[in-house]
Write a structure and sequence with these properties.
By secondary structure, the protein is an alpha+beta fold. The chain has a single domain, classed as Alpha-Beta Complex (Peptide Deformylase), CATH 3.90.45.10. The chain has a five-stranded antiparallel sheet with strand order 1-2-3-6-7. A two-stranded antiparallel ribbon has the order 4-5.
Amino acid sequence: MTIRSIITLPDPKLRLVSQRLERVDDALRKMMDDMTETMYDAPGIGLAAIQLAEPVRLIVLDTAKPDDPKNPMHLVNPEILWSSDERSLYEEGCLSIPEYYEDVERPAKVRVKYIDRDGKEQEILAEGLLATVLQHEIDHLDGVLFIDYLSKLKRDRVVKKFTKIARHAAEGPRRI
């Protein structure tokens, strides 16, 4: 398994709409394993392939508590079939927007259809943290970031901050 680099805001690739995958094969399972290892190393609880600059409809996640055994899920072509009218509020963060957290309101429950790592169609009814993570990661596949749910003022501040950080990183150290 290989730990891969996670792209961060303002990288325009984060706004791409990811393409459906046609099949699950050994190459895709290797990518799933790399993504899982990268997610754990970051550390995070969810990761979309586009965050590794791979514009395909693949997400990995693991909402197990830190002291529980790891329980990764691999979802190919995930699709929300239904979401509840009931809402929940969670503080969200994102590996592509490091060290920035805000409360986001989303449907409390979702039903998601996907293909598992063995190529079998599955459905899951999720609530709580799992529902939030699924929605957050599926949003990535459509070029949507959690900051898009914030007010324009907050979103603009975050984008400006990360654009400035990226510009300074590209310029390199200043010499006096």
